Every structure is written in structure tokens, then in C-alpha cells.
Amino acid sequence: MKFCVARFARVKWLILALIYLGCSPASEQRNTFKIGFSQCTSYDNWRQSMQEEMYRELSFHDDLELKIKDAGGESSVQIKQIREFLDANVDLLIVSPHEADPITPIVQEAFQRGVPVVLLDRKTNSNFYTSFIGADNFNIGQIAGRYAANCLDGKGAIIEVKGIQSSTPFIDRHQGFQDMISGYPDIKVSGVEGDWGVTRDGEAAFKKLFENGVKYDMVYAHSDFLGFAVYNVLKEMGLENEIEIIGIDGLAGPNGGIQYVYDDILKATILYPTGGDKAIQVASDILHNRPYDKENELTTTVIDSSNVRVMKMQTNKILGHQRDINRMVEKINQQKVVYKSQQYFLYILAFLFVLSALSFAYTLKLLRERRETNKSLNRRNEEILRQRNEVVEMSEKANEAIQAKIDFFSNVSHEFKTPLTLILGHLDELQESNGNKVGKDAGLIRQNAMRLSRLVSQLMDFQKLENNRMILKAGRYDLVAFTTDVVKAFKPLARRGSYQFDFYPSEPELWVWFDRSMLDKVLFNLLSNAFKFTPERGRIKVFLEVESSKNQVHVIVEDNGAGMNADELSRAFERYYRGDETRVDGTGLGLPLSKELIDLHHGNISVTSEKGTGTRFTVSLLLGDEHLTDKEKVSEGQLIDIHEIDYNFQNPDSEPLANPKITLDQTVLIIEDDKDLRQFLSGKLQKHFNVLEAENGEAGIAIAVDQVPDLILCDIKMPKVKGTEVLKKMKSDHRTSHIAFVVMTSDDSLEEKMVAIKQGADDFISKPFNFSLLLERIKTILTNRLKLRDHYVHELPVEQSTKTAPNLDKKFVNDFVSLVEEHIGNPRFDVNEICDQMGMSRIQLYRKVKSMLGYSVADYVTSVRLKKAKFLLVTTDQPVAEIGYAVGFSSPSYFSATFKGRFGLTPKEFQKANQKV
Ligand code: FRU
């Protein structure tokens, strides 16, 4: 920035210099002096030469401006023109008066007005002028007289041809000549006047002089111009060689006096300089207040045959110089034009420069301002960032706190649910061993344990709702069937209390989008409340009505129980509001939770009630699925009916499924960190299976890999390695992938179950659970597994494919069967080699093959050998012994014995029996 400012300072001086340069000629122009030159006539060469000299001289004076007015030899015109000059306020007047008398007053007036007047060549009759430039004409007359006298040796006749006698030079030239000639008495002078150039008056008068026969020797003409005219007349008269002519002026150039002398037209000429250059010099001195002379006499000399060559040469040279000067002046003038245009260009350039310098300065200013603004913005940004980070940090802390709270709640719930499972489990045992003795008490214990379980679930749901983790997963279900199931679950309760309890659906079936688990909770809540606040033998009705105009379906739960007062009614859905102790359940969570769950459905729940008369809850759901986002819906594929409604009001009446195939051969691994529950389950399951136990996920994985059980019963929530991780590990390892997996959860939310199902769980059971139910599920799974095994056995090795086995198991079976097929002819191919090739231990291979195919490895290999032997015996004509070797038997006798042991016939007998026709 400092650098820029310094540079700008330097630039500023440059700009000022340019402006000065650009402007200075303009200021000089303002001081130009106007000079008016009143010329009596410009008719002849001598005066044109005068004006040229003036202009030449002017080129050295830039501040002088000359204006010439030609009076054309008319004094009246000259007076008028001088006045015009005065009116135009010229700074100085140069006057070459035509006639002295008429011009004198106007010159005097100008002078008295304060306008300097320079008289050139001719004078006025007064002294009122500033300066005079001209030669001494009296002296010129004298010189001419002396020269003529000398030429004539003081004797002869001379004709004096005069210029106009009202003009001072001619008066003086006449008098000077007279003055000199008067000293030569033998010289006679006759005079003629006249305007020789314009009229022929003078010429006529001249010719008349010769009429008397007088012989003239010489002509004294007052100017070379008159002398040349005389020469022409004399030539006409044939006297040009008789009479010599003396002129005045001695002008250089082709029509000048010098040339006339050179050409013998004139005898001599007396130099009379025009004084044009001198007039300008004097005018400049006057105007610039420099010293000047009032009288400026120009020098003169005689030019005749004696010096005419030198003079001609010199004047030619001068003329050459003058031409050079003229050219230079012309060039200078051209340069001036160029300079002028450049000057304008410079002005524009300077203007643009100033403009760009200003905009540069302005840009710098803006830049500085912007930098300042940026700085302050950056500061603000940093501040905002800092605040944002603080907010993020705080929100992270808050999230951590929330997470801790959620974890706490789920841990607590888990902790609650495990002992609840134990309570219920032991209760079953108690009932089994003591029969009806504990019946009523056991019922109460069970009821309260289940109530506690529900409360814990509700609390967990609220936590999820508060943290927006409760996401609607609606599917399209038959609401009539669903409600019927719920109602059915309350039937035993209704029977026990002799309630009139019925369901009135308006349609036989009604397909509605809802989340089963959520609606299940809502209806359960409403029905629980109805039963709770309706005395025995009361009436509880459930209606299902469609309101087409609103595109809605209403599920109505109506009772004729205690009812609510206005205050209770208005706060029925308020969280943690308990109202009358007798009105709502212990926590006050049920109704608010129901409302939240229906809100998630974009539906509505309302209540009407009257104290002592009854209550009516209406749950309204929208028909169709336009109100649901994709995220709120489960796809058809996800519509898994995970488990039937199981409210655990009492022991299931159903008998365990009879399954003869389930034997003590099968091994169940229990992975559960709660020692009591683990031991309880272990004790119960031991009656049906081999049981292995693991107290955490890590130990569970190790045992599973090592022992390869048939089924794993695993708790989902465990410290360090969770149940889902154990599941993932099992399903991704080909040694354990076939093992059935049942998950024990404390949370029956669909979400968690979906995760487990996706990872390959075969089933799950929510705590607290009923042991008999668990046992049934385990048995069902194992039975299905056996069916699957049969499938493999029947299909393989002929087709070598499975349709229902998980990918990893299918691969295992394929690999295993291919291996056996490939080595079928090798008698040394045994279990050890298969273990090496499959990368499994003997026990792992044994268990896996046993589980998948129902054979030991050795039995399976033998069975494949025999099957292939059977095939070869029937389809080929090979000798029996060869077939035995071909399928890997080391000797024909061993082949024959084994074949007979398996099929009751020797290979030969078998071949005979199946002989091709
Ligand atoms: C030209 C001229 C010159 C002469 C001068 C006198 O007009 O006649 O020949 O010397 O004027 O004023």
C-alpha cells in the first residue's frame, strides 16, 4: 500500500508537468499582440517585397499577429481602414501613408488615443507618431544628383520623372536632387509628373518634352518602376541608347532595379530598402516595452555597372536565403499545425491520465475500504465460527447427554426385562410343580410382571419419540383382521370379568396403511384402560367405521365405565398427567404415547367422556398412502409378519409341537451376559438339547467356531461385542454360517428386528418371554433345518444344488460335494484331505457336514461312492471289480462287503437284478 501511495505521488508530478506543458502555449496565445498595417498600395513589386519581409520577420515573433489592409492608392480608403483597425483595438499600427496631408489627422488621433504608430517609408505632416522607418530621401535625391552630374561631366539636359508630389519621399527626392544639381549650372532639368503605371498621362507629358527638338542626356526617375516605364517609351522612340536612366529602389529579383542595371536598362539605381523587417522589429520592441529609436534611417548606396555583379550575386544569395527562410517558416508553420494537434492530443492524454490517476486513486481507496471491510467481515466470521463451534460443541455435549440418557433408559429397560423374564420363567416352573395351589397368586405376579414390562416399553418409546428416533414403518394391512386379533387377545380378560365385549367392523375387510407395532400399542392401551376403568360385567365395544367423505377410518373403543370429568378430559393426552389416581394407569404415559403414535400416522385420536357414564376414544387414520412419505412406508418385501400378537396375559394353552426328530444330539449355545437368565435357560434347555454357555459375545464366537452348535440363542444387548455383531460374524464365516440364530431383544421395535432379520437371524424373541414359547420356536427352527438337510441329501450329489440354503452354505455344500466327486476314484481320499482342502478342523467339518447333510463325512463319502457304483453297475458293462476301483474302493472284497452292508445285495446281485433288457 505504501509503495502504491509513493508511486502515485510521483505520477502526480508527472501529471502536473504534462498539464503545464499542455497549457503553456495556450497562455502565450492569450498575450498575442494585434498589429494592423495600413498599406497605401500593394500594386508594385517593391511593396510586395516589403510585406514578404514583414512576414518573414514575424516568424521570429510568435506573439505578434499581423493584419494588412491595402488602400489601393486611395487616401480616403486608407483613412477608413485605419479607423477599422482602431475600432478592432489593435495593439499597434504600422502605416505607410499614401499622401501625407489626408492621412496625418487619423494617425495623430490613433497616436493620441495611445495606440503606438509606426510610420513606414512615408511620413505624415506631424510629429504625432511613435517611430519612423525609412531611408533619407533628401539624401537619396542628392546622391542621384551627384551621380548624374558626374556622368554628364557637369553639363547636359536631364528629365526628372517625379512620383506623386503629395507623398513625402518624392518631395524629398526632388528637393535633394535640386539641391545637388543646382551646383551645376550647365545642367538643365526638366520635370514631368504622372502616374506612369496606371494611366498614360505621365508618358504623354514626357514625349511632349521632345517636341521642341531638345536633346536630353539623362532621365532621373523617382523609382525604378518609373525608370523602366521611361525606358520602354524611349525604346519606342528609338532613343534608348541615347538617353541614360537613373532610378531609385534597387530591388533584387527579376523585375527589380538591380536586374535593370545588369541588363543596361538603367544606368544606375539608388538603393532604397523597404524596411518591412525593421518595422516588425521596432513594433515588437514597442509592444514589449523594450528600448527603440523614434527615427530609424535605412542605409542606401548607388548600384551601377561597377558593382552590379557583386550586388546581384549578393542579392541572389539573400533571395536564396529568404526562400530558405520562407521554406523553413512554412515548415515551422506545418510543425505548428502538428504541434497544435499534438497539443490537443496531449490535452486529451493528460485528461485521460488525470482521469485514470483519479480512478486509480479511487480504486486504491475502494481496495483499502474493501480490505478493511474484509478484515471486519473476517473478524465477524471468526466470531460466528467460534460461536458456531461453541454451539456445535454444546450440541455435541447435549447429544452425548441425550445419548447417555437413551443408553441409560435402554440399559435400565434391559435390566428390567431380564429379571422379568426370570420371574415369569420361575413362575412357570412354580406353576408346573405346584399345580393350582399357586394359581391365583401366580396370575397376579404374572399380571404385574407384564405390567411392569409394558411400562418399561412405554418409557423406551417416549425416549425414542423425544429423540425423533421413532420412525413410522407403515405397511398395507387388513385393519379388520388386525383389530380382530387385538380384540381376541382381550377375550380371556373379558371372560374373567364377565364383560360384554364385542367388535363391530362395518366392513368385512379394510386395507389400511399403518405400523402394526405402533397401532398394536395404541389399541392395547385403549383396551387396557377400558377394562381398567370399567367395572366387571360392564360393557366395552370396539367399532370400525369408514367415513368416505373424509377419506378416513375410525377405530372406536367405547366403555360404560367410570368416565372422566372435564379437567381430566382436557388433559387426557398430556404427558405425565395422572389426574385422578383411579383414572389413568400409573405412569400417565399410555394415552400421550398413543397420541404421539397416531400423530406419526398423520392421524388423529380424540376422546369424549362423561363422569360416571363412560368414555369413547376414536382413533382416525387416513385411507390410502398419499399422506405418507417413502421413508414412512415399508416395501412389500419388508412386510414380514415378525411374530404374532403375544400379550402374555397367561401361559399359552398350546401343547409343545411333537417333533420326533429333535433329539439330544442337537446342541444349543446360549450367549447371555446375565448369569441368572443364562443359567435359567441352560437348566431348562438341557432337558431337550446339549447346551453350551457363553457369558459374552466374544466367548460366544469362540465356542461357536470351535464347537459348531446347531443353534445359537443370543442376547442382543451385551457389553463390548453386541448380539448383532456375533450374528454378523457367524453368518460371514462358512464354518458357522449354517448355525441357526435366535436373538433375544428387550425392545420389540420393528426397526431393531429388521436389522436382525437382514443380518440373517432366524427368529427373535422379546423379553420378557415365555419359556415354552421360546422352546417351541427353537424346536420349529431346528425341525425346519432338518427338512432343509433332507433337501440337500435328496438333491445331492445328483443335482448338487440347493434352493433355499443361504449363499454361504450353498457354496459350502457345492465345494464339499465337488471335492468328493472329484476324488471319488482315489482310495486314499479321506477326511484329513477334505479338512485340508476346505480349511476346517475335523470337528468343524464333521459338525457342518452332519448339520447340513445328516451324514458324518466318512459316511457321506462312502454313500457317494456306492451311489456312483450303483449308477455304473446299471448303466455300463464294466466288470464289478473295475467299478469298485473306479469309485475308490481299495479292494473288490471291501467294495462287495460295503455294498452288501448298505443295500442287502452284492454288487453282482444288484447288477443282475437291474440287468438291461
Ligand atoms: C512604390 C514606391 C517606390 C518608392 C516608394 C516611395 O510604391 O513608389 O518605388 O521608392 O514608393 O514611397
Describe this structure in words.
The protein is α/β, with parallel strands linked by helices. Among the domains are: 27-134, Rossmann fold, CATH 3.40.50; 136-273 and 299-309, Rossmann fold (3-Layer(aba) Sandwich), CATH 3.40.50.2300; 471-623, Histidine kinase-like ATPase, C-terminal domain (Heat Shock Protein 90), CATH 3.30.565.10; 667-790, Response regulator (Rossmann fold, 3-Layer(aba) Sandwich), CATH 3.40.50.2300; 808-913, Arc Repressor Mutant, subunit A (Orthogonal Bundle), CATH 1.10.10. It is built from 28 helices and 24 strands. The strands form 5 sheets. A 6-stranded parallel beta sheet has the order 2-1-3-4-5-11, with helices on both faces. A 6-stranded mixed beta sheet has the order 7-6-8-9-10-12, with helices on both faces. Strand 9 (244-249), helix 9 and strand 10 (268-271) form a beta-alpha-beta unit. The protein is elongated and about 200 Å long. The two termini are 113 Å apart. Beta-D-fructofuranose binds next to helix 2 and strand 9.
